[in-house]
Fold this protein.
Amino acid sequence: MLCETILSGNRLSLAKLITGIENGDEEALAALDALFPHSGRAHLIGVTGAPGTGKSSLVNQLARLYRHPPQGQLARRVGIVAVDPTSPFSGGALLGDRVRMRELSGDAGVFIRSMASRGTLGGLAATTSQVVAAMDAAGFEVILIETVGVGQSEIDIANLAHSVVVVEAPGLGDDIQAGKAGILEVADILVVNKADLSGAEHTHRILEQMLDIAYSRDDSSGSPAQNSWRPPVIKTIANQGTGIDDLFASLASHLTFIKNNDEWIKRSHQRLEIEFENLLRERVVYNWVNGAAKEKYHNLKQRVFNREISPVRAVEELLTLES
Amino acid sequence: MLCETILSGNRLSLAKLITGIENGDEEALAALDALFPHSGRAHLIGVTGAPGTGKSSLVNQLARLYRHPPQGQLARRVGIVAVDPTSPFSGGALLGDRVRMRELSGDAGVFIRSMASRGTLGGLAATTSQVVAAMDAAGFEVILIETVGVGQSEIDIANLAHSVVVVEAPGLGDDIQAGKAGILEVADILVVNKADLSGAEHTHRILEQMLDIAYSRDDSSGSPAQNSWRPPVIKTIANQGTGIDDLFASLASHLTFIKNNDEWIKRSHQRLEIEFENLLRERVVYNWVNGAAKEKYHNLKQRVFNREISPVRAVEELLTLES
């Protein structure tokens, strides 16, 4: 059965399962169900930021460091999931893939998968979560979830991670891009990549100012100091490998922090609850928009547009359909 | 019947209906259903911003100006809905209410209602939309929807409006607050209130810079110039009544703009669709979390937490429940 070969470390089976998950195949969902109890061990690291911040190079460098850690540390098996909510097809992501393949090729300890937006973002987040669970069960100990920052989407996907790295690059645009998405609220670690570019200092300062404000707020809401983690702001030059060791060390500290504060289990449950409820929302609405009640749904929506019936009543009519 | 007395302009009936809507009474929903065809005429104006930006004073000043417009313009009947997603009770909002009552008291052309968060934000947005529809049907020609800026919430509520006014006040914190919420993406008009405070120029400049970036992006995505509205940034000192006439004029221009670009109907439909689908999502999940399937829902969630069953399978088990 697919599940056993995956647990035994068969890469081809894992790749097949993930394709099945993306297509929503029954067999894949059954295998995932069997694998699910074996998941929950991996350190899930979300890496997000605006296009052009150099996320992919950073992720590749991180992966390499987890594979070849500093003296005295264990090498980790690394999964990489590259999610691009912006592209309906995985073209862009696949390109990134080919680059990665060259850089990390032939390492059985690295598994890379690209995903593109199919249907709703909620759906993408859910599918991503399933792919992550599959890699997790397959024994990959660190899973890097890379997403292009485009607002709500990467917050959804950041919710999948234990540790969220937000990548900035010099330039006001990126600062705002990051700000816009409310992404600072989900950041555990901030990275100013391309730190050799002019404006890096400015970006670094703005991020620290944002954090000062955010954390003065937190204090006023009385969160105990020993339970609070202030995101460090780390400068990197990914394509030169500069600063990656600092990021690597910060991720280790953050992992220790969340394990010592019940944050690990809290985030895991929170993640699963969000996934559960999002799936529920998406599936239910999907059933109505595309399923048996399709006609009824669209007719009711049109009647709402014509103000013949109120949205509340329209929803009630839909709900009575199936009870 | 409640509906007729409301159409005839009975304030007490309207107040009663709104309370019924907030409580989800059957009678209220029936009345709302009957009123709904009479809605869709009012100019819905969302006013949002971080706490302390002076939204309430601004809204009061705007209301007064709509009641007593410049020479040669018609006075409008004004509804005010103050939404506070942050407070579980309407305490804060009610306080604002009492202040308003003094300022706008005895004017039958003004109807004020405060709402606080009950249950989910989606739920709050939906209820707010219903209250707005009721005021709209009751013949209030301009409806000011005031919300405290706290991220996603005011975006949900901004989606209810034809024209969205984002209020800033001097200070980096507020700039970020605005940025964080992705609120600039929904702003039709930006206001720098408390323009007499130091830092107002800085805030004004940052907002213009943000707009420069946002609109250079838009152009690259090839939106025709005559269809594009660049939000003006207006300085006001609400508690002195300064700049309100500029805001008033901008709102008139924006109303003309959306009516000339099919934006009016587009936004109305978009609003109704969002309301429809949010109601659907909320109601369905609510039914599971609190309804007959309550036990089953929570058991399944716990089994997901224990990794005995995958979220996908858990949702399937829920869905098979009722089919």
In short: Chain B has two domains: 39-261, 277-322. Residues 39-261 of chain B form a domain with the Rossmann fold fold (CATH 3.40.50.300).
